[in-house]
Amino acid sequence: MNQLNRTIEQFSLRAALSISVIIALLLPLGYFVISYQYQRGVLDAHSELSAYSVSGIVRSNPVMWRYETLRLSEILERNADDGVAESRSVHDSKLEILASNNVTIPAPRITRSNSIYDAGTIVAHIEVSRSLRPLLQKSALLALLSLALSVLVFNLLYTFPVKTIRKAYLALGESEKKYRSLYESMQESEDRYRALFSQAGEGILIISLEGRILEVNESFCRMHGYSRAEMLSMNIRDLDCLGGVEEMPERTQQMLAGKTAAFEVEHFHKDGHLFSLDVSASLITYDGVSCIQSFHHDTTERKRIAKERSKLEAQLQQAQKMESVGRLAGGVAHDFNTLLTIISGYSELGLSETDPSQPVHSFLTTINNAAEKSTDLTRQLLAFASKQSIMPIVLNLNDAMSGMLKMLQRLIGEDIHIVWQPAPNLWSVKVDPSQIDQILANLCVNARDSIADVGTISIETENFLVDETCFAKHEDKILPGKFVRLTVSDNGCGMDEETQSQIFEPFFTTKGLGKGTGLGLSTVYGIVKQNNGFINVESEPGIGTIFMIYLPCHEDGNNQTLTLNRKESAPRGQETILLVEDEDVILDLGTRILSSLGYTVLQANTPGEAIQLARQHAGRIQLLLTDVVMPEMNGRDLADRLQAEYPDLKCIYMSGYTADVIAHHGVLAEGINFIQKPFSSSNMATKVRNVLDKGR
């Protein structure tokens, strides 16, 4: 403590003496310097003003101005604005006094001068002087006061230093305690940071600007399969694939500019596989050196989900595209079917009434053939759109297809062999038999076109049980259950993946111009979807293609017998038929067809007219043949009204609208008799005769 007191006393003496000397000298000296500079500034201003005034005299009389002593004296005798005495005089270029204000200034004094010009030449000088005695006197007085003040300050600084410094020493001790506490808090924060660093879910990495790994956390080590010790001996270039290393200098420059760099890289795992990472990196100070700290997030799972999402979006777009085409097909189907009914019907009537030897007979034949092809094309579009009007029955696929083998063999030609492999005890399915014909015909024709020369087409049926794990990667959502699988395979040219992705799109074809409509496989796709099934394709270029169609099993085993249509002469009759159709042309066509077959036809243009006609008719009406969609009421309501009054009245519905519209009107229920427009006269004749003979 004594040593501390002596130190404090010596320090206080030196500090007090130094401060006292500064006060004693600084105040008077500072006052003198400032005042002196002020006086100089004032004299500069006065000399300049006087020189300006004299310059006016010089300009007004350049020759005789120096002799105007009176005017010059008046200018010099003007008092100073602050009342201080000044000596003023005008000297010519030879320093001879031309005029003055006759004021004597005691020494020491301060003098300032200014030049007078005439046409750019100095012709005289103005001198203004003031005495320095007042300034020196005031400075001396201020020096005495400063000395007294310095003595007082010396006594104060020297009298109370120990107490003040001791207080400061105690304050320093308190500050030391606070800083020690702050240091401990910082140490605790650092420990907490290190704990967060090591336990963070994201991978955290600290590297030097050259790429040497300085620190890593457990998550980063776990992502890459290395231990921390192995990581600390590595460079980031050992983990980055080539692309990441090449871009590192550019990213470093971005971070040196104070920005955070966000990018994606691919790193090597210890086992050699590559995986993707999202990285956010910035510049930090680590152990006093600028380093790069980066946060890494493994995006493998996110990319997998994004890929699945992209796949689902592509499937959705494909489904929407298919649906759009389906809507287009359904939208024009009614008008097409109506027109085709007229073309087909009247061409058949024309053929029946025209001699085959006449040229017009061949014209009508061509028109009729074109109508049939257009009808098939419309049906294919509707089948693709799942809006084809169908009459599903419970059947056995083996029975349904066995009768088609000869027709298929003729269709594909003798160079290609058909192998038929039906499975025993095959489960039943509920489907329209004509759709089975369409599926087989389209798949076999497609297989035939893929075979360059000779080859084989195999057709196979089997029972198939779908569980939850079956077809996990299939594009469609498949519900578990029993299915009957129809497999059509060939040893043709096969398809690549890009072609496989488009084969079910309408109008897509790999055949040459004019050799295919591009509706064959899209028709198969639509039929399968319409029957709640699904289709799978396996193909490799140069090996062949396998189409596997899965149709849901129908638990009711009562199969219905299939009757093959034979092209026979149109059946005739003598019954009375009430024909209701709001299209005049089709009404007239139907009347002509039925009348030519021997029937008595009562034709009505509206449902109301049909009801009135039925009530007015004296005889019995055996059959109602009515359109489905009409003004006033639909065909189903009309049939209900008439059958309520005539219970024995049989009914056939006809329509050119798509299946969804007809179903909305309750026509496609099981047991309902229906004929789809466009129809030929033979189709109508057969349908009418079958319905009239039913139940006899």
Describe this structure in words.
The chain is of the alpha+beta class. 49% of the residues lie in helices and 21% in strands. The chain has 5 domains: 156 residues, 2-Layer Sandwich (Beta-Lactamase), CATH 3.30.450.20; 99 residues, PAS domain (Beta-Lactamase, 2-Layer Sandwich); 59 residues, no CATH class; 163 residues, Heat Shock Protein 90; 118 residues, Rossmann fold (3-Layer(aba) Sandwich). The strands form 5 sheets. A 5-stranded antiparallel beta sheet has the order 6-5-9-8-7. Strands 11-13-14-16-15 form a 5-stranded mixed beta sheet. Helix 8 packs across helix 15. It is elongated and about 160 Å long.
Determine and state the CATH class of the largest domain: Alpha Beta
> How large is the count of helical segments?
19
Q: Which structural class should the secondary elements be placed in?
A: alpha+beta
Biggest sheet features: 5 strands, antiparallel
> What is the oligomeric state here?
single chain
Extended strand count: 21
Strand order of the largest sheet: 6-5-9-8-7
What fold name stands as the CATH topology of the largest domain?
A: Heat Shock Protein 90
| CATH architectural name of the largest domain | 2-Layer Sandwich
Distance between the termini: 137 Å
Catalogue the unreliable spans.
561-567
The named CATH superfamily of the largest domain: Histidine kinase-like ATPase, C-terminal domain
**Which term fits the overall shape?**
elongated
Measured by DSSP, the beta-strand proportion falls in 15-25%
- Domain module tally: 5
Rg for CA atoms: 57 Å
